[in-house]
């Protein structure tokens, strides 16, 4: 490939919306600073980024990389073979695209791409989203030029001189939610007479939360709360059937919510998993949140993320195993306690780090210019 005068940036990672949307936000911020920049995404074949990135207007190349299988160890022989193949492909991609900087946002593809970039003396920038750094990023940090983090105290995982506190890029600044509330209530067919609880199960869905409704629809019908319930694609059919058969007119069900600005504007409280990107977004939204960490993530990092808010009086923590017996009571109590909701809102807003994507994009451009 013949290089033109513009800067070339590779952004690698994905696997979940929590990695993909920040990556796209960084790309958008790069182009907002310099519209001539050439950007190539590198993701994992078969994962969400292979659809979401092109729909955002960017080119993407896939690697056949997979995560470790912690339950069936014998399957990891195949995982190792795919990792070696992905590393070879990553070197080829780098030679052809000739990036000035390689950026890793987390997810399966970040490992081989950034490892190859480090070996080939390409400046690398890591974006660590969580309050707990995983093994892969800790290894990659040895060759990284800059490590952008969302939480204080990350010196226990990374070299202090490389760390830059930027926060996590999110989809919007969410600065006009009050103005949007009337439109939001109309959009979700709500009259605003009751507190509104927004349930976010992530792109795939939160099993414990969805099952709490499926198994006890009458409990959700009894309390004086309206619900906007995002099920995730895996649970939509069952949850929607429970809502219809139970005649739960106070629950609006969606498999996925495209207008998150309107969902946040309508909500008086939010029930959510505690992925890093989600938490950064919730801090900007500034609404009371009940965090239910997923038990199915590496090194229990969602609990660590949640505790960083709970320790500041900025969120309510509910263990995944306690959703069935406690969720309804916690929501009901929060709905009737205006002072508690105001306190949670005030504290979570203090933790917001706006402009993260632009800060990270500026660092990427600085690295490219130094190269």
Task: Describe the protein's architecture and organization.
It is a single chain. By secondary structure, the chain is an alpha/beta fold. It has helices at 17-33, 49-55, 76-97, 110-119, 135-140, 177-187, 207-215, 217-222, 236-245, 260-266, 276-285, 301-310, 323-335, 338-349, 356-370; strands at 8-12, 38-44, 59-63, 101-104, 124-128, 146-149, 163-165, 196-200, 226-230, 251-254, 269-272, 289-291, 316-317. The strands form two sheets. The protein has a seven-stranded parallel sheet with strand order 3-2-1-4-5-6-7, sandwiched between helices. A six-stranded parallel sheet has the order 10-9-8-11-12-13, sandwiched between helices. α11 (276-285) links the parallel β11 and β12 (289-291). The chain is globular. The model has no long low-confidence stretch (mean pLDDT 91).
């Amino acid at each position: 490939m013949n290089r033109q005068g513009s800067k070339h940036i590779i952004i690698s990672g994905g696997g979940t919306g929590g990695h993909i949307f920040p990556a796209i936000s960084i790309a958008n911020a790069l182009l907002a600073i310099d519209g001539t920049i050439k950007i190539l995404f590198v993701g994992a074949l078969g994962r969400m980024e292979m659809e979401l990135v092109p729909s955002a207007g960017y080119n993407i190349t896939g690697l056949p990389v997979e995560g470790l299988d912690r339950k069936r160890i014998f399957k990891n022989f195949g995982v190792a073979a795919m990792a070696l193949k992905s590393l070879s492909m990553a070197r080829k991609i780098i030679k052809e695209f000739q990036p000035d900087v390689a950026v890793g946002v987390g997810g399966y593809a970040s490992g081989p791409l950034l490892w190859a970039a480090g070996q080939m003396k390409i400046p690398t920038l890591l974006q660590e989203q969580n309050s707990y750094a995983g093994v892969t990023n800790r290894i990659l940090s040895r060759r990284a030029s800059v490590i952008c983090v969302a939480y204080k105290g990350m010196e226990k995982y990374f070299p202090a001189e490389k760390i830059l506190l930027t926060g996590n890029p999110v989809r919007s600044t969410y600065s006009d939610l009050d103005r949007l509330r009337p439109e939001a209530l109309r959009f979700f067919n709500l009259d605003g007479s009751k507190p509104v609880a927004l349930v976010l199960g992530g792109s795939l869905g939160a099993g414990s939360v969805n099952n709490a409704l499926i198994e006890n629809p009458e409990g959700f019908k009894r309390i004086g709360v309206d619900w906007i319930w995002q099920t995730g694609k895996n649970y939509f059919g069952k949850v929607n059937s429970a809502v219809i058969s139970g005649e739960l007119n106070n629950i609006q069900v969606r498999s996925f919510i495209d207008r998150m600005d309107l969902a946040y504007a309508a909500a008086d409280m939010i029930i959510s998993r505690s992925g890093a990107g989600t938490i950064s977004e919730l801090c900007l939204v500034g609404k009371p949140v009940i965090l239910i960490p997923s038990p199915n993530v590496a090194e229990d990092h969602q609990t660590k993320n949640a505790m960083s808010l709970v320790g500041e009086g900025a969120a309510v923590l509910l263990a995944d195993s306690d959703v069935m017996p406690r969720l309804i009571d916690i929501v009901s109590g929060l709905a009737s306690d205006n002072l508690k909701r105001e306190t949670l809102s005030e504290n979570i807003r203090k933790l917001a780090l706006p402009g993260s994507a632009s800060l990270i994009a500026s660092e990427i451009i600085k690295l490219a210019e130094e190269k």
